[in-house]
Design goal:
By secondary structure, this protein is of the alpha+beta class. It is built from 22 helices and 33 strands. Helix content is about 30%, strand content about 25%. Strands 13-12-11-16-15-14 form a six-stranded antiparallel sheet, sandwiched between helices.
């Protein structure tokens, strides 16, 4: 059967002048819609098919239907009198049969293609838009209509920007694709679809050019997918990524809370308020389970969209009532809360009723901050205005943020608790101060950086002498501070034995070896533990360094020994600085040679400077060697040269000198602790010392008592005469009876009255319990009962028995 012939009239200007009902049926345009329009506008590809037809010439063309489809027709043109001037053409159209356009093979390919196209334009969830080479909309499917909100009738024949808002960028990309032929994938556009006009949706468009088999440009296709859920998921992942680097970046509870607010606003929430238990901010212990009744929460931070400043001063008591906090923290689980409920209104009031532009909060999540089943605080998240309500995915995100924040808060609490303990321990390491005396003027300064193992000390000894000590224990934290405290206590105990510095350090080393465990040389390999190794107790003392110096104001002589510690510096009255260079010693509990001793004399009004290695940390020249050997104190050491230069120019009080050294040598944020002690020396006034050589004869005891009584009268200390005569009588009697010549009696008037009796024997007197029938043995007991303290110290040629009395 021959195809139906369709008549169309075209005037000599190429405008449609006649339109048969058959043409309307074929192409879908009514006559009134096409009359007067250019006939070439019906061609699907004017560039290919739009040449002027010759008379009585038949050829095939592609015509555009009103619905966007294309129909292939055979076209015949005959002259005809039409139009005002009476000349034109009659165009006969005949739709081509399938065998003329390429009949389907046995696989039915054209049917499949038509079925695919029909499905894409009817049931596909992907928005599909077809445009002609002039970027005029030809057709789009129902999915596309649901995304954009305009009907096909409203959009066909118009450019995208003439129909829809927010597609300017997409149209520019279409022009580029049309010109280059390179497809564009994943163009993002934000539109509010008719089905959800209150919220932005994110769409991903892929644009590609359509061409026929001969490469003729037929138009463009735009495939658009709603990727809003994927976009929101990406935003949540971005928040978590930021949270991993921002929350807990410092061990500060308030900064951790600020980090939670900063990463949450404005993506995860429009407003966030964080409240923390008072115990967390104070670094105190927490009980397991929900918060206790009456617990106080402090507002740590609050942050709102378009107003990124904190709404409440951090650290002040939170406005959320304790009863509401207890209700929210009852199960330690995050949960959405209806803003219109009683609890929701209370929580919003606690946040300060966050609103912007008159928009009330419409969505609320309360998230407890809990770690290890312990409540540390809570965070409130809210949204208002056009923001999407919180959904299940948002609740999961909030729970993850709350968990990360709680862990960081707990770390900050533990760190603060350890810091407080460390500060308390370091406070015990500060020198208690010397009693008033003429021997030394002492000052010290300590700078804490969390190490805890540096200290300096001044210990009064017998005979108006003073011991100056500086020590360093490797490691950090409470363990290091505790070990330093134990070492300092041991030194003070050993100081009561009046030992020489080298002998005292030897006994201290024996004590450390005996209590360190293992082989007595530190670790199992005989080496000191590395700093920060975490070894606790006495074992951490292996590798500790110590300097012990004794100053005698009567002779102005110093005696010092070092166990791997920097030697002291002496600043003479004229400003010259001398570095004491004694025998190199190893740190405690390290195998090495016996400790040496350096004796030297200092002029009156000199300054002794003792310091710990941390004082020179800025230059990093001080190190402790593998075996604890002191290093970095050579004459060319730049740090030591800088210290020497500062001491040369330093004037004023000893306290001012301490402050000047720490200010000049320590960096703004030191990594290690540092301590420095400065002592100005004074010679004891000869008028405050009286000494007599006594013959080794029992009759001399009476003479010794008389000499002591006259001297006390001269010093205006007659109130102490009776007790002093008793002490002198007992000590001189014992020296003559049990000791060896020469015997010397010496009285020293300082902050206490000291009586010393020396002889050439190294036998030490001892207290014993005398029975009622014994005629002697009670002398030393009387001495101990009537004095403040007494003891014995040994010299190179004998011993000295000393007794101290308070004169106040």
């Amino acid at each position: 059967m021959a195809p139906e012939r369709i008549h169309v009239l075209v005037d000599r200007q190429g405008r449609l002048a006649g339109w048969s009902p058959a043409a309307e049926k074929l192409l879908g345009y009514p006559e009134e819609a096409v009359r007067g329009r250019p006939a070439l506008g019906l061609l699907a590809d004017p560039a290919a098919d739009g040449r002027p037809p010759g008379p009585a010439e038949d050829f095939a063309v592609s015509l555009r239907r009103r619905d966007g489809g294309v129909v292939r027709c055979r076209l015949a043109v005959r002259p005809e009198g039409v139009g005002d001037e009476g000349s034109g053409w009659e165009v006969l159209l005949a739709p081509l049969e399938r065998d003329e356009t390429g009949a389907a093979g046995q696989d039915g390919t054209p049917e499949l293609e038509r079925a695919l196209l029909e499905t894409l334009f009817t049931r596909s969830p992907v928005g599909l838009f077809l445009l002609d080479p002039q970027l005029r909309v030809i057709r789009f499917n129902p999915a596309g209509e649901g995304m954009q909100g305009a009907s096909v009738e409203e959009a066909v024949g118009r450019r995208p920007t003439e129909v829809w808002a927010g597609v300017e960028r997409v149209e520019r990309v279409m022009e580029e694709v049309l010109a280059t032929g390179r497809p564009a994938i994943g163009i993002e556009k934000r539109v509010r679809p008719p089905g959800d006009p209150d919220h932005d949706h994110v769409y991903s468009a892929s644009v590609f050019r359509l061409e026929d088999a001969r490469g003729r440009i037929l138009g463009l296709a735009d495939a658009t997918v709603d990727v809003t859920d994927r976009h929101l998921a990406h935003e949540r992942l971005t928040v978590l990524a930021r949270a991993s680097s921002r929350i807990g970046s410092t061990l500060d509870a308030l900064d951790t809370a600020r980090g939670l607010a900063e990463v949450s606003v404005p993506v995860a929430a429009d407003g966030v308020a964080v409240e923390v238990l008072e115990e967390v901010l104070a670094g105190e212990d927490l009980t397991a389970g929900p918060v206790r009744p009456g617990a106080v929460l402090r507002r740590a931070t609050s942050c709102f969209r378009d107003d990124r400043t904190s709404g409440t001063a951090a650290g002040h008591e939170g406005p959320l009532p304790a009863a509401v906090a207890a209700e929210v923290l009852a199960d330690l689980e995050p949960r959405p809360v209806d803003p219109l409920s009683s609890l929701g209104r209370k929580v919003l009031r606690g946040m300060g009723n966050p609103t912007r532009g008159g928009q009330e909060a419409h969505s609320l999540i309360v998230a407890p901050l809990a770690a290890q089943d312990r409540a540390l605080g809570l965070a409130v998240f809210c949204r208002w205005g056009e923001a999407r309500p919180f959904g299940p995915d948002d609740l999961t995100l909030v729970a993850q943020l709350a968990r990360r924040t709680a862990e960081s808060l707990d770390n900050a609490r533990r760190h603060l608790r350890e810091h407080n303990s460390l500060v308390a321990l370091q406070h015990t390491l500060r020198p208690g101060g010397l009693p008033p005396q003429q021997a030394l003027e002492v000052a010290h300064t300590s700078v804490s950086a969390g190490s805890g193992g540096d200290w300096v000390d001044a210990v009064p000894l017998s005979g108006a002498r003073v011991a100056l000590v500086a020590g360093h224990v490797p490691g950090r934290g409470i363990q290091s501070a505790a070990a330093a405290g134990g070492l300092r206590a041991a030194l003070q105990t050993l100081s009561d034995l009046d030992l020489e510095p080298d002998e005292l350090l030897a006994r201290l080393d024996d004590m450390v070896r005996g209590t360190s465990g293992g082989n007595g040389h530190g670790g199992s390999d005989g080496r000191p533990p590395a700093p920060g190794s975490g070894r606790t107790g006495h074992g951490q003392l292996c590798g500790a360094t110590c300097l012990y110096l004794i100053y005698d104001p009567l002779s102005r002589r110093c005696s010092a020994s070092s166990a791997g510690h920097p030697w002291p510096l002496v600043v003479h009255p004229d400003g010259t600085v001398r570095t004491v260079r004694g025998p190199a010693g190893d740190a405690l509990c390290c195998p090495g040679a016996p400790f040496g001793r350096e004796d030297f004399e200092v002029p009156e009004n000199s300054r002794l400077v003792l310091y710990t290695p941390g004082l020179l940390q800025a230059e990093r020249t001080w190190q402790v060697g593998h075996a604890g050997q002191a290093m970095g104190q050579g004459p060319d050491d730049p740090a030591l040269q800088r210290l020497t230069g500062l001491l040369t120019r330093s004037h004023g009080s000893v306290q001012a000198m301490c402050s000047a050294l720490t200010d000049a040598l320590l960096p703004p944020h030191p990594r290690d602790d540092a301590a420095v002690l400065v002592a100005r020396t004074h010679e004891l006034d000869p008028a405050h010392v009286a000494s007599w050589d006594l013959p080794s004869d029992p009759a001399t005891v009476a003479t010794a008592r008389s000499l002591a009584a006259r001297q006390l009268t001269a010093w205006d200390l007659t109130e102490a005469a009776f007790v002093t005569e008793l002490i002198v009588s007992e000590l001189v009697t014992n020296a003559i009876r049990y000791g060896k010549p020469p015997v010397t009696l010496r009285l020293i008037r300082g902050h206490v009255l000291t009586c010393e009796v020396s002889d050439g024997s190294s036998t030490s007197p001892r207290l014993r319990h005398a029975r009622t029938t014994d005629e002697g043995g009670r002398g030393l007991l009387l001495v101990a009962r009537t004095s403040d303290r007494w003891g014995t110290r040994y010299t190179d040629d004998g011993k000295i028995v000393w007794v101290e009395q308070s004169t106040v």
